[in-house]
Protein 1
Amino acid sequence: MSGMAAKRFLPDVDRTRRAAGWILIALFAYPLAWIFRIVAAGHPNGTAIVFFLLIAGMAALGARLAFWPREFLEIDVFGRTFSVIRKGERSAAGALDSLGPLEVRKRTRIVATGKGRRTVTEYVVRGAVHSGIDLYVMKTSGKARQRMEALALAWHLPCQSLGGAVRSPDALDMPLHERLRGDGAARKPVPLSPEWGVRIEPLSPGYAVVSTHRSYEPLQTVGAIGIATLFLLAGPLSDLPFLKEFLGSARNGDPMALVISVLIGLAALFVLWLVGTSVRDAFFPGTVHITDQGLSYRGRRMRFAEIEEVTATSPIEIVGDRRILSLAGTFCPLAASDALVHELQRLIVEVAATSADQA
């Protein structure tokens, strides 16, 4: 493998280790230098030496995580080869093309919490060989797809998202309406069950996909915030003399009181935004408009040339190279996702084919 052509690629675990390493370095570099000056000044006490050893150990751990990954790939795009390096030694090598097609796979795992167990869903980017190496692990399929496509373009490999069609590297940037234009199955309508609460209405030109589905799951967030607010009002915020003194300090320009006031204000704004979006998603899941101007939802628009895929995940995502437009998780029940995604793709292809502006 050519040393000049080879480039190092860190899988997801070692990227996380590297980030943690830099955080440790940033946290302990200055304290280490400060205590080193005390120790180097001569006749340090035992406490200074202990602190020096502890902080030096944390900084050394940060350097170890940041600069010495346990596992990485060496990719030679020009020579079309790759190697797997584990613990500083080459453990495997092969043709770069054997990594293709790169794939996005859905993975679920059970995580133990203080209140029991919960299911975590992840979307993993992997190669065809050495599929035990997670190239990326993302929370949404759209972001995983973007990462996968970036690698596929850089390494010139085919790719496949969630068991869909395998796309060659030359077709990765092709808009959805061009890719499916000649696909008869994609142009065939699929009925939407009335019980799903989703219907298609004609526009002039285009269509509106209207959701009347109701899910009150987001209101659990509102309830949790309400309980927390009552707890604060009955506890820390019930001490009126303390609040008056604190507000007086802020008005008098006390820096600490001002900083805390700003943080409390930002937290309050975030809570209000969270309550507002939860209520909106529960009662107003929204409408998708597909017109000659592209696809729009809740004030956000994507032109047909930007749309490359619609993912049948929860929430449904309209995915492009640089942007992802997510529908509300309450837009439709999970059982309707596949049919709704098919219909959204069909309508995009139909309207784009008759649109004067597909750019």
Note: The chain has eight helices and 16 strands.
Protein 2
Amino acid sequence: MKFDKNQHEFPSPFHREIWWWAVGIVPPEDSLTDEVKKNCGPEALEGCYQWHTYFNALCGDMYENADAYTPASGRQYRDILEKIAAEGIVNGDDVIWGGAEWDAYKAKINKSKAYVTSGVTLDECLSALARTGLVCEITDKNAIFYHAKFPKIFHAMQVFERSPEVRQTPARHHFAHCEFRQLFKSYSANYDELMRRASDESLFIAQAIHDYCRSLKMQRYIHFGIMKYKYKSVRILDYNLYGNEYPTLRLNMGSWRINPFRGDLEEIFKRIAEKKAEIDEK
């Protein structure tokens, strides 16, 4: 399924969540750089390609067959896959958990607020993931996982779980979006990469914000995926694209006394409207 970053109407919040996940998946031609390929073993490298294909296929199936996956969220499914890779032992193409450890995890997750509130169980989520090829076999001693369609994914996923700073939130974001530049060293996306999934209209808005802030001699910098602007060494404005195709703006009211907008907040929105009008005329 091909996802359109300019889509703006969705059948449900779940569809919107899955769409936002899908449009943020980084293509391998960007994330699998020569440096990454050089450091990857053959199975891990093949796993990266399969991982990317798998997540696109999973998003497509979730979007087209939402009833089979809800009321769990897309985030819950990603967390399951990451947990399997993080805590299990790779044996061939399988990931093996000790039976007692898996039972303890299942009991804990089923009692968690997210699962109780959603009214789902871990087994129900695993059953949904089986639609696209994930297999879970329970034996007397172990819980064994493998993927029938993309057998090498856990090789790459486990390499990721041993990457630098993986337990920090930005790295978790990389897992969901197949950002393989994170595999061997901490990686932060630049502005163009962060805005890759923004709608065309959103790009115009962001550029209008930047042009106006630059005219006021405000400097832009990026911190954990958030675009921030400083004036006289004080952060004045920031925005990001988490969970929405439009920039989410925030003004730093605590530094208002030196704010170059001088209370005229309408000016920035006027500039945005002018920029949009220029585009519409073309």
Note: The mean pLDDT is 86.
Protein 3
Amino acid sequence: MHNLKISYYKLQTGQHVISFIDPITKRKVRKKFKKKIEADDYKSSLEKKFIKKGAKGFDMTPIATLMQIHLKKCPDSKVTDRKNSFLSFCNHFGHFKIGELKKSDLEYWFIKIKKEHDYSDRTLSHIKSMLNNFFKFLVSEEVITHSPLADIKFAANPPARRQRVVLSVSEVKTLLDFAYQFDKDYLYPFLFTIVNTGARRGEVIKLKRSDVDFATGFINFRNTKNGEDRSVCMGDSLKELLQNYLQSHNGENAFVNQENLMIGRTQIQRWIKKFKTHYPMSKDWGLHALRHSFAFNYLRKGGQMYQLQAILGHKTIGMTVDLYGQIKSSDLKQISPYDEL
């Protein structure tokens, strides 16, 4: 942005017009004045502001507008990797003028989402890294000279806040046996699907009947956490179970409650709580622990990290490695490539 081209002309109505291309939004701006001296003063103020501050002098553009420009210019930006955090950021800061955004505003927002979602510092660090794509773009475009996000620090490698619960293959089998005894009509098919796909709870809850394709052998998860669809191949046991289960009801959703309606999150939580009371296990597992267990046991059997990324629907391989790349060598069996020699 080496210069600012400003045009001046007079309308037949006698009004004086100053027009220029906003160096940030790239949109044409026109201002009308009754007197020529007013137009000249405005033109002079624009030139002085640009000479003194460059494009930064025009940095009162709303963040929502700048985000639209960023996504248009950088369609592969990672700023949308965490869909919920991206939407929260846009909703909270969309009306802010970029020149008004301060470090303290961002700190307040990080504290807010940490309390709302019980995020760990590790998660907040990931969110910051995601947003860095947007702020680095603003710096490169000379919209701002310094990113306020750069002054916010999180521990580089903070320890995991909660102990990750992972069930072995035999423990998963025991859990499913218990679930069948407890409720073979509703809870068991739901848990069986999560166990055999590694899918998130929400992905399975909103699964439609039409998303289960027996002709191709795929379950199609729509509009997932990263904003993309994902198809996961069904094993023979899952395919057989879902064929029988979907014949037992005519609901639009694949998984339904006793009223043939989509299962709610609260209802699932009540089912799980009651189930765990009747069939306690040594490990305090939750539904996300079944996803972790899928990943752990998949890798333990020799599965590849890139394949696991596709199955779990992670936006980047870095996310998969960060979550599951710390499996100890003692967790792996038959690691020697020469066992069969």
Note: The mean pLDDT is 86.
